[in-house]
Amino acid sequence: MSQPTSSSAGPVVALRDVHKSFGSLKVLDGVSFEVARGEVLAIIGRSGSGKSTALRCIDRLETIESGEITVCGHRVSDPKLPLRALRLDVGIVFQSYNLFPHLTIEENICLAPVTVKGRRRAEARETARRVLGQVGLGDKLDSYPEQLSGGQQQRAAIARSLAMEPQVMLFDEVTSALDPELTGEVLRVIEQLAAGGMTMVMVTHEMGFARRVADRIVFMHRGKVWETGPATILEAPETAELRQFVGSGL
Amino acid sequence: MIATQLGASHLQFLLQGALWTVVLSAIALVGGGLLGFLVALCRVSASRAVRIASGVYVQVVQGTPLLVIMFLVFFGLPPLGINVSPLTAASASLILYVSAYMGEIWRGCIESVPKPQWEAAECLAMSRTQRMFYVVLPQAVRIATPPTVGFLVQIVKNTSLASVVGFVELARAGQIINNSLFEPFLVYLIIALLYFAMCYPLSRWSRRLERRTGYARRQQVVTP
Ligand SMILES: Nc1ncnc2c1ncn2[C@@H]1O[C@H](COP(=O)(O)OP(=O)(O)O)[C@@H](O)[C@H]1O
Ligand SMILES: [Mg+2]
């Protein structure tokens, strides 16, 4: 449908030696990783290790001090980057769904396609129906966010992102605010997306899920990529830190 | 006004004054509301210069008694070649006054819309203006309704200051009648009652709105 802005060769997301501080607190200390088209990367690590910050830097919600970030051919680290173009290619879903409470689920989903992409309303509605079906909420078009459970709201938020047809999806601990029995329904949606070939970077605490879905794992520790590799590194960690992290049952 | 007893003609004169109080309040609300909306947008502008300029405007207007603003407009403009009627002077002063207070009330309401809402809209590639008008303002309006209606009461009461520039609204009408009747207690009691009759419904309404703030009302029709 939408044209990929980058050539299909080369990584969709690339971080090279990224440094970022909040005041005197060094949060990203030379972070590098790449995500190829269709690849699923899971970022794991202790709370405070810089996972969310890394994700936010990819969508330029934070600026970096040094290093280079490229996303779908956009030079994110360039201060003059046109943000709109970047955000048309990147979808991001947060722990706290952030649906617009004054709009129905359908309106939540149609808003950006209509206002940003200039889609006709009927066409946007059609898209809304399709993406809601994809996340199993086909009957919730006219509901308001507060009428949905946490798991349903999170799936609606994913649908809202999908309606923009992004090249890459970022997920930041999207199940952390959910009761365990609602976690599964959201993870299943993400798993389907992965199976459909969506390029994804997900920060997650769900180790079993990461092992099953991720093509590659990045373990962050103290603002660094401490260990990275295929999901098998979770079974046989090389560093004591990852061994301890996996062992702690998180 | 020759009769020395309070009569129907006096009451009619008072009611006429009350009507002007309503008219002046409406002008102040609409004019001050429009200007106040602009002030609120400037106060949260992306431009630092605009934020500071509008902040100074608010501080200056809020730091000046409405009475003094009335005098300044009424006596200050004619020497500049601008003639102002009492109604114009009173309206202009009230609009300035209301815009500064409404602007601040609404700035607070805009800022109380959670930051993640801005961010979610930003991540959907919406421009700053789109975020403001489609996502933030509709939510801010709901938060703003109770304090705005509450402030209406202040507007109604403050129109009484228009008497200093010779505008005959309710308070001034009362003064005029009292000057011929010399029944200050009775006259001002009637005036107090008339103000109360205008303000009480507003404060009741404001309190009702406050109680159903948020989305509580819609939640009642939720079927789990
Ligand atoms: N906006 C911010 N201002 C100041 N400190 C921040 C901000 N965001 C995150 N931090 C700090 O940066 C560190 C890393 O945060 P974060 O990237 O959220 O970690 P994680 O997602 O791995 O838990 C934490 O110590 C956090 O307190
Ligand atoms: Mg985090």
Automatic annotation (TrEMBL), chain A:
Domain ABC transporter intervals? 13-247
State the UniProt keywords alphabetically. Answer: Amino-acid transport, ATP-binding, Cell membrane, Membrane, Nucleotide-binding, Transport
**Family annotation (SMART domains):** AAA (SM00382)
GO molecular function per UniProt: ABC-type amino acid transporter activity; ATP binding; ATP hydrolysis activity
Subcellular location, principal? membrane
Show the InterPro entries listed in the entry: AAA+_ATPase, ABC_ATPase_HisP-typ, ABC_transporter-like_ATP-bd, ABC_transporter-like_CS, MetN_ABC_transporter-like, P-loop_NTPase
What are the subcellular locations of this protein? Cell membrane
Which is an annotated Pfam family here? ABC_tran
Q: How does it sit in the membrane?
A: Peripheral membrane protein
**Got a GO cellular component term for this one?**
plasma membrane
Tell me the PANTHER family matching this sequence.
Answer: AMINO ACID IMPORT ATP-BINDING PROTEIN, GLUTAMATE_ASPARTATE IMPORT ATP-BINDING PROTEIN GLTL
Q: Which family does it belong to?
A: Belongs to the ABC transporter superfamily.
According to UniProt, the name of this protein is Phosphate ABC transporter ATP-binding protein
Q: Which lineage?
A: Bacteria, Pseudomonadati, Pseudomonadota, Alphaproteobacteria, Acetobacterales
Automatic annotation (TrEMBL), chain B:
Cellular-component GO terms for this entry: ATP-binding cassette (ABC) transporter complex
Q: Which GO terms describe its molecular function?
A: transmembrane transporter activity
Pfam families, A to Z:
BPD_transp_1
Topology in the lipid bilayer is annotated as: Multi-pass membrane protein
Q: What Gene3D superfamilies does the annotation carry?
A: MetI-like (1.10.3720.10)
Question: CDD domains under this entry?
Answer: TM_PBP2
Q: Which residues form the ABC transmembrane type-1 domain?
A: 18-206
Residue ranges annotated as transmembrane are 18-44, 56-77, 185-203
Q: Name one GO biological process term.
A: amino acid transport
Record InterPro entries: AA_ABC_transptr_permease_3TM, ArtM/GltK/GlnP/TcyL/YhdX-like, MetI-like, MetI-like_sf
State where the protein is found: Cell inner membrane; Cell membrane
Q: Which UniProt keywords apply?
A: Cell membrane, Membrane, Transmembrane, Transmembrane helix, Transport
Q: Which family does it belong to?
A: Belongs to the binding-protein-dependent transport system permease family. HisMQ subfamily.
Alphabetized PANTHER family for the sequence: BLR6398 PROTEIN, MEMBRANE COMPONENT OF AMINO ACID ABC TRANSPORTER
Task: Give the protein name, as stated in the record.
Answer: Amino acid ABC transporter permease
Organism equals Teichococcus aestuarii
